[in-house]
């Protein structure tokens, strides 16, 4: 089967990314846009474009309208991107009923990994370690009882069963917080995902967040495209991603990847997905243990860094797998994943600033100047331009800066990222560019002493005081670093 026309049920940079991948495959494209999103560049990247009814996020969640446009435009397939309808099994079912190909995992996988509690059970059934916890749905009473069983000094995580992006997630430090934060998580989850159910896990302190890129076809073949380091987070949302994970023991890397592939095989996974793990220190010497925390049955924001180090176009691979291609037909060997070339780092450029207390303040306005860096090993995925008016109706992400170095020395990729960040010129709105520069320059980041508490631990050092001059960017001197 060969797809003829793809409707892209998304917006912004990811819609542009999908449109380009489809164009390279000689497949027609259709974009959609809400009333308040008509100035986004994504509508110029496709062959056809159609308006949605309404404003903001809700317009992109209107399944009936999206399906009507698909029919009207003659699209034979839909790519959901990430966010919005990407993990919605009802949307995938509707596509199936209408005879339209859903470019992504099947309905069963969306249902399984869309329920974080069921995903935990699937991992357990595959003998993959998970944090101590309750699969849920839990109550305030059961959460309180579970917290009481934890070792003294331990903390608990409350998480939305249908959650993503850190929404509906809170850390519980003591019993007195449970009722208040439970209700807050429940409300946030219901508002964000239409499902207020929660589950609980023991919080793994000082963990590193490592995820594995999985890819499978419809014939039972599964492989991986290595792992990514995602520990640089604020409020449980990723800010910097790295491929492959630097400063990790090869034995631990192998165990995590093997577990991800094992889980994918056990559930019959197809198309692409990401399985996420936390690594921790069972002793004080090094990170030597891990647990599975969740699976994301969709394209990830950070797929870019994997593309850079493997040379695999993940979006094109999604499309070809949806057409029925095998892994071997798209150039992948189940037993020999592509070799990794150097390191790639992605910096998420958001319209926001961070206060000394860690509060995030969104910024809106008209972008009066936008000049993205260029050069070897530098890629920018964006949808804005000089004159674009930002809005709080959508996520604050306006660009992804991806820098790649073929060198096995992690510092070479860091230096390239620092140089590119310093050359990125955005005026008219506040951004986190300087914050990223501070992260890239921090000694702990450079030598790999990072975990999910890195930003909290070093916040006072990372908050920008004043705009840096070009000479203050500071390129680190390379030293011998083991991968």
From TrEMBL:
Residues 120-323 form the ATP-grasp domain. PROSITE patterns: ATP_GRASP, BC. The keyword Signal does not apply. One of its GO terms (molecular function) is metal ion binding. It holds the Pfam family CPSase_L_D2. Residues 2-460 form the Biotin carboxylation domain. Keywords: ATP-binding, Biotin, Ligase, Nucleotide-binding. InterPro entries: ACC_Biotin_Carboxylase (IPR051602), ATP-grasp (IPR011761), ATP_grasp_subdomain_1 (IPR013815), BC-like_N (IPR005481), Biotin_carboxylation_dom (IPR011764), Biotin_COase_C (IPR005482), CPAse_ATP-bd (IPR005479), PreATP-grasp_dom_sf (IPR016185). This is ATP-grasp domain-containing protein.
């Amino acid at each position: 089967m060969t797809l003829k026309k793809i409707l892209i049920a998304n917006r912004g940079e990811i819609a542009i990314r999908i449109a380009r991948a489809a164009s390279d495959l000689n497949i027609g494209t259709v974009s959609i846009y809400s009333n308040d999103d008509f100035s986004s560049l994504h509508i110029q990247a496709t062959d056809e474009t159609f308006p949605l009814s309404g404003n903001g996020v809700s317009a992109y969640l209107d399944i009936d309208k999206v399906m009507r446009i698909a029919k009207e435009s003659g699209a034979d397939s839909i790519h959901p991107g990430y966010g919005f309808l990407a993990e919605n099994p009802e949307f995938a079912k509707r596509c199936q009923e209408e005879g339209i190909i859903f470019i992504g995992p099947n309905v069963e996988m969306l249902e399984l990994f869309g329920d974080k509690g069921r995903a935990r059970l699937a991992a357990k059934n595959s003998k993959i370690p998970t944090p101590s916890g309750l699969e849920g749905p839990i109550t305030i009473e059961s959460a309180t009882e579970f917290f009481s069983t934890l070792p003294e000094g331990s903390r608990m995580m409350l998480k939305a069963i249908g959650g993503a992006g850190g929404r509906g997630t809170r850390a519980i430090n003591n019993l007195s917080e449970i009722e208040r934060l439970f209700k807050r998580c429940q409300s946030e989850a219901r508002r964000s995902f239409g499902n207020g159910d929660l589950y609980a896990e023991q919080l793994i302190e000082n963990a590193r967040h490592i995820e594995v890129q999985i890819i499978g076809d419809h014939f039972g073949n599964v492989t991986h495209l290595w792992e990514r380091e995602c520990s640089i987070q604020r409020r449980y949302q990723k800010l910097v991603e790295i491929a492959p994970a630097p400063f990790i023991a090869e034995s631990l890397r192998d165990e995590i990847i093997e577990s991800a592939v094992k889980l994918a095989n056990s559930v019959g996974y197809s198309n692409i997905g990401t399985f996420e793990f936390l690594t921790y220190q069972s002793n004080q010497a090094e990170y030597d243990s891990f647990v599975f925390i969740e699976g994301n049955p969709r394209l990830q924001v950070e797929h870019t860094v994997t593309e850079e180090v493997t040379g695999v176009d993940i979006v094109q691979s999604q499309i070809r797998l949806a057409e029925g291609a095998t892994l071997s037909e798209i150039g992948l060997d189940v037993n020999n994943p592509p070799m990794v070339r150097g390191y790639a780092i992605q910096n998420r450029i958001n319209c926001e600033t961070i206060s000394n207390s860690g509060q995030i303040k969104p910024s809106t306005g008209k972008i009066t100047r936008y000049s993205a860096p260029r050069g070897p090993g530098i890629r920018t995925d964006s949808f804005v331009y000089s004159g674009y008016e930002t809005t709080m109706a959508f996520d604050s992400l306006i660009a992804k800066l991806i820098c790649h170095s073929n060198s096995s020395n992690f510092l070479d990729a860091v230096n390239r990222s620092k140089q590119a960040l310093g050359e990125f010129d955005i005026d008219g709105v506040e951004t986190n560019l300087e914050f990223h520069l501070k992260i890239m320059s921090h000694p702990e980041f450079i030598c790999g002493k990072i975990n999910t508490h890195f930003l909290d631990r070093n916040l006072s050092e990372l908050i920008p005081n004043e705009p840096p001059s070009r000479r203050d960017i500071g390129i680190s001197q390379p030293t011998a670093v083991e991968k």
